[in-house]
TrEMBL record:
<protein>
    <submittedName>
        <fullName>SWI/SNF-related matrix-associated actin-dependent regulator of chromatin subfamily D member 1</fullName>
    </submittedName>
</protein>
<dbReference type="InterPro" id="IPR003121">
    <property type="entry name" value="SWIB_MDM2_domain"/>
</dbReference>
<dbReference type="InterPro" id="IPR019835">
    <property type="entry name" value="SWIB_domain"/>
</dbReference>
<dbReference type="InterPro" id="IPR036885">
    <property type="entry name" value="SWIB_MDM2_dom_sf"/>
</dbReference>
<feature type="compositionally biased region" description="Basic residues">
    <location>
        <begin position="215"/>
        <end position="231"/>
    </location>
</feature>
<feature type="region of interest" description="Disordered">
    <location>
        <begin position="1"/>
        <end position="28"/>
    </location>
</feature>
<feature type="compositionally biased region" description="Low complexity">
    <location>
        <begin position="88"/>
        <end position="99"/>
    </location>
</feature>
<feature type="region of interest" description="Disordered">
    <location>
        <begin position="212"/>
        <end position="236"/>
    </location>
</feature>
<feature type="region of interest" description="Disordered">
    <location>
        <begin position="77"/>
        <end position="108"/>
    </location>
</feature>
<feature type="domain" description="DM2">
    <location>
        <begin position="237"/>
        <end position="314"/>
    </location>
</feature>
<dbReference type="Pfam" id="PF02201">
    <property type="entry name" value="SWIB"/>
</dbReference>
<feature type="domain" description="DM2">
    <location>
        <begin position="109"/>
        <end position="186"/>
    </location>
</feature>
């Protein structure tokens, strides 16, 4: 095998000194990054280290830091309509078979028609659209009306139309995606009546991702030692114990559970029943138990979190 063929056979991976292949191809990373971002319920503040670790785990190989940084920036630019080729790429990636379903060859929720809220439908002039086209049209509007902060292009100053959508005076290229989730629902969930736009209420607190301010130091005790977190209480964030839906109660055999505990038990079930696709470890083939939870025949390790999210019941619901 010559050098060129050898490079192609490794899937654009580079062998490190330790003998472990490190993926260095930005193109090879784009699809897994798309899948990772699609699996996030809210895209607010993307942490490169966390994202790279997740993609590396999904691929089963280490990922080059520089290549990943360039790849995820390219993906974000594409999703935000900053890539001039994004429209042609979306067009060329659509297959004849996908035309009737609203999905492209890349598949996933990113290329599926979604139902729009009344404010977003009014803004775009359509009742359904794909997520990339929603973001692309938003960016066309932002540039046409010169709404980017000249001192920080990541920041968008909302005019009346955007303020009606996002309920704030400014957004960023990252939290704009998060806020858009309040305005879209999958056609399947809409048709089955599982979700309505009442469940996607915007939080009206002032929220600006950039520039970030330094975090205040943790309070210290009189002795000058930083106060340690007390044990018990269930913790916060992903460790917070929440009420869960009846299907998830059957799975967990509990009436409440923390997200971390649910994720752990899900993976125990997946591994015990060998539900990972042997040809693509990122793909989970749902058995009856998972089908009851996700309502899908298969999910990915990224989208699984999104499908489990509706099973957690917040205190105000």
């Amino acid at each position: 095998m010559d050098a060129e063929a050898s490079q192609g056979a490794t899937g654009a991976a580079n062998e490190s000194d330790a003998g472990v292949e490190t993926i260095t191809s930005e193109e090879a990373l784009k699809q897994p990054i798309h899948e990772y971002l699609d699996g996030l319920e809210d895209i607010n503040d993307i942490k490169l280290k966390v994202a790279r670790a997740a993609v590396s785990k999904a691929l089963g190989q280490p990922v080059d830091k520089k290549a990943f940084k360039n790849a995820i920036q390219a993906v974000i630019n594409e999703r935000n309509g900053n890539d001039d080729s994004s429209e042609s790429e979306a067009s060329s990636s659509s297959s004849p078979d996908a035309a009737g379903t609203g999905k492209s060859r890349r598949g996933g929720l990113a290329r599926t028609q979604v139902v729009l809220s009344k404010p977003l439908a009014k803004f775009l002039g359509v009742e359904t659209e794909t997520r990339p086209q929603i973001v692309k049209k938003l960016w066309e509007y932002i540039r046409e009306h010169d709404l980017q902060n000249p001192n920080d292009k990541r920041e968008i100053r909302c005019d009346d139309a955007l303020r009606e959508l996002f309920q704030r005076d400014q957004v960023t290229m990252f939290n704009m995606n998060k806020l858009l989730t309040c305005h879209v629902i999958s056609q399947k969930a809409w048709n089955e009546g599982k979700r309505t736009f009442d469940t996607y209420k915007l939080k009206l607190k002032d929220e600006v991702a950039f520039p970030k301010t330094a975090k205040p130091s943790k309070p210290k005790t009189k002795s000058g030692v930083k106060r340690k977190r007390r044990g018990g209480g269930g913790g916060g964030g992903f460790c917070k114990v929440l009420r869960i839906s009846e299907p998830l109660q059957r799975f967990m055999n509990e009436e409440t559970a923390a997200r971390t505990a649910v994720t752990k038990k899900l993976w125990e079930h997946i591994r015990a029943n060998e539900l990972q696709n042997p040809d693509n470890k990122r793909e989970i083939i749902c058995d009856d138990t998972l089908r009851d939870l996700f309502g899908q025949e298969k999910v990915t390790i990224f989208s699984m979190n999104k499908f489990i999210q509706p099973h957690f019941i917040k205190d105000d619901e």
